[in-house]
Amino acid sequence: MPKALIIDDERLARNELKKLLQDFPEVEILGEAANAAEGISKIEELNPDLIFLDIQMPGKTGFDLLTELDKAPHVIFTTAYDEFALKAFEVNALDYLMKPVEPQRLADALNKLQQVEKEQAVTFSSIHRGTLQEHDQVFVKDGERCWFVKLSEVRLFESVGNYAKVFFGSNKPLILKSLNALEERLDEKVFFRANRKHIVNLRMIEKVEPYFNGGLLLEIKGGEKIEVSRRQAVKFKEMMSL
Hints:
Blueprint: E1 3-7, H1 11-21, E2 28-33, H2 36-46, E3 50-54, H3 62-67, E4 74-79, H4 83-87, E5 95-98, H5 103-120, E6 137-142, E7 145-150, E8 156-160, E9 163-167, E10 174-175, H6 179-185, E11 191-193, E12 198-201, E13 205-210, E14 216-220, E15 225-228, H7 230-239
Parallel strand pairs: 1-2, 1-3, 3-4, 4-5
Antiparallel strand pairs: 6-7, 8-9, 8-12, 9-10, 11-12, 13-14, 14-15
């Protein structure tokens, strides 16, 4: 049973959505928030599986809110933007509902959620909250482009000062998180700190070669070559039973 949070600065819009959701008893409404700051603290406190999120809000937008979360729950955007404007965003959100929300479109969106949860066979709230798991998704925004990215699709994180560059597909956007902060949260069985500048997804390694001074050279699926420092090479060999 998905647990949902409604984040929208218009009280009328929140009430309207709550009224429509009465026809979907499988959705439990945990609460609501009127702006991004309130939304973030409610998400951290209540850990919803699903958020209905308005994009345009005074102060921080819905996108700004998502960039501040460690991991993103499922998101259904509720917005007055027209469909054409939405195409400009590459966000592969669960769905977009145009305001005023039509009951049939809401039903379709919740149906999509059901399909996705079946595929994952695990709901977000049932996961241990401390560590980010492979099937968790993070929200990444780079200029006007936005993505929800499953961690299993990320092959590499690269340190750029206080930022980290996220490598997935042909994209390499920056997120405002240090490599050390990421290392603390990522599942060490999947993500390995190869050196000071890189964390690699172990499942994306295509080739391992010996390198200078007892180090190793990893070839990653996207063609990147990453050096494993001598100290980390010992750990890597133990992990991979080499």
